[in-house]
Amino acid sequence: MDTDRPTFFERLSSLLLREPEDREQLIQLLHSAHERQLLDADALSITEGALAASEVSVRDVMVPRARMEIVDIDDPLDKIIEQINRTAHSRFPVIDDNRDNVIGILLAKDLLRIKSGAAFNLRDWLRPAVFIPESKRLNVLLREFRVSHNHMAIVIDEYAGVSGLVTIEDVLEQIVGEIEDEYDFDETEDNIRRDQFGRYRVKAQTTIEDFNAELGTNFSDEECDTVGGLILNHLGHVPKRKEELDIGDLHFQVLRADRRRLYTLLVSHHQPPDELA
Question: Above 90 in pLDDT, residue 206?
Answer without folding.
Answer: yes
